[in-house]
Amino acid sequence: MSVIQWLQLPQEVLLHILTFLSPMEKANVRATCTYLRTLVDRPSLWKSSTIVFKSIGIYNARFWDTLQNRKICSVEVRKVTLKQLKKMASSLPDITNVRMDACLKGEILQGLQPLLNLKQLHLTECSNVTDHDLFTEILFFQHLTHLSLCRVTFSSVLPLTSIVLLQNLYSLSLHSKEGIVPERALQYILFRLPKLRELSLATGNMNKWKLSLCFNMPDNFVSAFEEQPCIPRLQLHKLELMNCRCASLSTNAFNQLSTLKSVCLRHFKCLQHEDFIETILLKLPQLTELKLEWAAPFEPLMCPIPLKLESLSLVGTLISNSTLVWFSKSAGELKSLNLNFSHGYDEEFVKKIPSLFPHLQNLYLSKSRLTEEALVVLANLYSLRVLDISNNLHLSPNAILAFRKMTSNRIGLILDRPMESVKYCC
């Protein structure tokens, strides 16, 4: 088809084709003619895009007009001043999602106040601002549904309790600089945020009783802020514990967490944690996703137990053939298995994956010693749609091409994954 014929396609068809292009490819298409520039700037093509600003001060008025026409909703800021932040907020009034990797200082968040509809705020470096100043400014954004705070220092209980005024919160991440969150304050806010469904904590040296207290019904705790009604039960769906050294939770805590569907233990280094993981599997009947990422080795102590797991992630973890077989007997309906950067299992296990996990739709084997023979066997996973074989030095281009032909290209192969993309940090 010639270029002229291609341009004669209906706009709806062209727009659909453009959705498959990367931002760089869209930019190349945009530079060809006025008609395609108008199409590429359609807001529908950018609604899921995040604009990354490494330095806001270098952009001109035409640049801001282009982004405003695209109705950009999500931005990531690497380096910024208060004046530049105000410029971005006034130029892009449709922003609802802001991630700031820049080090917060003073009253810089005031620059975001023009964003009246801000719903997601992720701050990755809060070590240079006091918790009092931080929460005072965050409370301005009453429509927040997602809040992430990393490297924050909690000086006392009261500043943190002010979060209860953000009654629309759906997701909350608190990763303190010292790895400890005031348990009384956390307990207070968890039972006063009725819409909260996702929680991520860096628990550091919190012991069983302090962590359990966070998930127990609070007593008559008094806050300096207007009292919010206390809900009788938590309704969390996702829980992430980072740098956790706690080996258990109380029975009352597990009862409050019975609605959990996803649990992630990241950088879990407790040497006697098998009982904790198996207790999680036993006590949380709704669990469909389990993540043990960069964790201490896990060797089950019990016989297989019936699980509803659909997704299992064992990233960067020592895991044996026998443990993986245990999971296959416990979670026979598993649809996603992530073994990226894990070790301890061998090629013989990989060859058994089609028989052990026949319903897999997603399989991640980055940096595995995957041979051509094992790759051929994986073609027998008839429900598989995504296969990650990146960072593998044992597969030739010819072997990958042969696999594509064998599976009629029904499986999307991930062949390139930067090492830094799997480094988990706040």
TrEMBL record:
Query: Cross-referenced SUPFAM superfamilies, in alphabetical order?
Result: F-box domain, RNI-like
Q: Which domain of life is it from?
A: Eukaryota
Q: Which residues cross the membrane?
A: none
F-box domain span: 3-49
What InterPro entries has UniProt attached to this entry? Answer: F-box-like_dom_sf, F-box_dom, LRR_dom_sf
Instruction: Report the protein name in the record.
Output: F-box domain-containing protein
Q: Which organism is it from?
A: Leptobrachium leishanense (Leishan spiny toad)
Q: What is the lineage of its organism?
A: Eukaryota, Metazoa, Chordata, Craniata, Vertebrata
